[in-house]
Amino acid sequence: MANPDGIAYPRAFWNKNVSPQKACPGVALDRNFDVAWNFTKLISSCSQHYPGFMPFSERETQAIRRIFHYHHHKIIAYINVHGNGFDEKTFKGEAVLYPKGYTEFQEDDDQYIDLKGEIDEAIRNASFRLMAVTVDTLYSWYGIICGASVDYASTVFGVPFSLEFVMQPYSAVFNYNAYQNEVAYDSLNAIWGRIIRAVFQYIWDSSRYIEKRRLSKLIRHPRKFQFRKHNRSKKISYISAIVGNKSDQDYMSVTEISRIIGLWTQVGCGESNDKYDNYTLFRIYPTEESQFEIIKLLQTSNNSIEVLKKSRGYNDSTDVLVPPDRLQSFEELAKENNFNYDLKNQYGRSFESPERAPRRRVLRGFNIYEYHSFAAIQEYIETMASKHPELIKLQTLGSSYQGRKMKLVKISQNPHAGNPIIFVDAGIHAREWVAPAMALYLIHRLVMDPEARKRELRGVDWYVLPVVNPDGYEFTRSSKTNRLWRKTRSKSPVSNCYGVDGNRNYGYQWAVSGVSKNPCDMETYAGHKPFSEPETQMVRDVMLSNADRIKLYVSLHAYGQYLVYPWGYTAEFLPKQWRKLDSLARKVSQAVQSAGGQPFKVMSAGQWYPAAGGSDDFAFGAAHVPYSYTMELTDGYEFVFPESRLRSTLPQLYEGFRAFASEIRNEFSNKRLRDHAS
Length: 678
Ligand SMILES: [Zn+2]
Known about the structure:
This protein is an alpha/beta fold.
C-alpha cells in the first residue's frame, strides 16, 4: 500500500496523500517521480493532479525510489496497480499500460508489443459481458502525464517490464442490477486471472533475453567499459557507481545522472521541441566494401541513430544523425573503421521555425518560394483554379487518414484532346518539404508563364498532386522534434505506433525487399498490407484510371539529387526498356545542369539498395506507364533545404520538367502537334 494516509483520509474520490501543502493538502504521488517531472505548468495544490513542489518531495515516493535504488539490478518488472472509478459515461474498462506517458513520441518497444499480443491471445476466448482490456501506452490512455512511477522505472532505471494495471472495480457499481456480483467476479477472475498469468508467463519466458536486450541498449566501447561476467545488470551497476559518490539519502538528482549516462533523452514533459538540437550529423563517404557493411549494421542494430540517406555509390555520402549520448562512441567507431566523414554539430538548431510562414502569408500573400502549411497550399491551388478555369480543373480524390481533402490539379489547354499525361506527385514522405514546394512551383510556371503555355502545355496535359501525405506534412510542421517524420500518420491496428512508409506501400512486388515489417519502424514500415493507406490508394486510382494516357510519372522526393527509374525492388535485373529510361533521365539532368543546377545521378532505383513497394515500380509495372521516375531533389542540406534557396533552385529544376515535356510530346503527341512545337 503505497499511499496509506490517502486511503485513511475520509474524502471520496481522493487520489493524493495528505501531506501539508500551500492551499490544500496532498500530492498526487504518481506524478511526483523525477521523470519529466512537471515543473513548467503550475498546477494548484488543490488539484487531484498536484505533482508536488519538487520531484520526490513525498516520503511515499522516496520510499519507492529507495527500492529502485537498492534493488534495481534485480528488478525485471515493476507493476503499479491502480483502480479505475466506475462511471457509465466515462467507462473505459481494464487496462495494462506501459511507457511512455510524458511524450507522444513513442519508441518501438518490441517487448510490449509482443506482450500485447500475449494478452490479446489470453483474453480472446473468454466470454465477458461488458469488459474491454486495453493494452497501450500511458500516453494513449491518459494523454500526457508527467512524473509517473512506471515511466520512472523504465526510463531512469531501465527496468525491462514496467507496467501499470488499471483495474475496474465493478463491485462498487451501484444499481447494476442482477448480475453485478457476477460481473465483479468475472472482472477479478476471468480477466485479471488471465492477464496476470499472461504477463508473468511472458516475463518469465523472456527473462533470459532481457540481459541481451539491456546490453544492446548500452553505450559501450570495449576498452572503456570492461564488464565483469556474471554481473546481471551491467548498465545499472554503472549508475550505482555514480550514485555511490553521494550519500544515499540525498543523492544527485536522477535527471542529472541519467543525463550523464545518456539513458534519457532530455525530453521534458509534453514539450520536446528541441530533440535534435544537440544531435550531430555525420556525412560518411564510404570508400570500400567493408564500410558499407558496417553502415548496414548500424541501421539495424541501433534505433537511436537515424540514417537519413544511404550511399548510392562510392564517395556518395551516407548521412547519419547521432544523439548526444552516442556521439563519443560513434566518433570512435568512425575512426576505427577509417570512415571518411564530416560532421555538423547542433543539427536541429538550423531547422526552420514552422510558425513563421502563416504570419508572413497574411502580410504578403502566397509566396511560391516559401514553405507553406497544407491549408495554405490548398487555398493556393483553389485560388489558381478559380482564376484560371480554362486551364485548371481540380479533382477531389478523397481524404487523408486524418481527413484532409486531397485535390489533384489537372492542367490542360484541351482536356478532351486525349493528350498524353505527365503525372507528378510530391510529399509522400512528410519531411521532404522541397518536394511539395517544387510541385507548386511547377503548377505556378505552367499556368503563369506564357511561354510555358506554348511549350510545356502544347499537346501534353499535366496532373499534379502536390502533397500526397498531408497528415505527415503537417506533423513535421508541428514542432522541430517532429521535423524529420517520414511516414503517414495512420494508427497501426496491431501496435501503438503510427504511420506507414507510403513509398513502401504500393502493391507491386510489395514487401519483397528493403522494408520493415515493424509498425514502430520510423522509416520503412510497409504497412500490414499493400495499399493500406488511403493516400497511396488515391495515387493508385489516379494511375489506374488514366493508365492509357499517363506516359510519364515523376514522384518528387528529397534528397541527394538522384533521378532513378525502375526497378526499385531488385538490383538483380533491369527492365528491358531501361536504356530509354536512362537516356531520358540523362537529358533531364543535362537540362538542369545547363540552367546552372546540379546534375542528377542517374541509375536504377534498386541498384544500391533494393526497396519494394515504391510508387515508381507500381506506375511502371502495374499501370504500364512507359516512363517512371523518382526524383530526389537537392543535395547538401538533407531534409532541411533552406527556404532562402528555393528562389534560385526551383527554376533550375523546372528546366528538367521542360525537357521531360518536350520528349513526351515528341514521342506520344499526334504528329500535327509535334510539327508545331519544337
Ligand atoms: Zn522520399
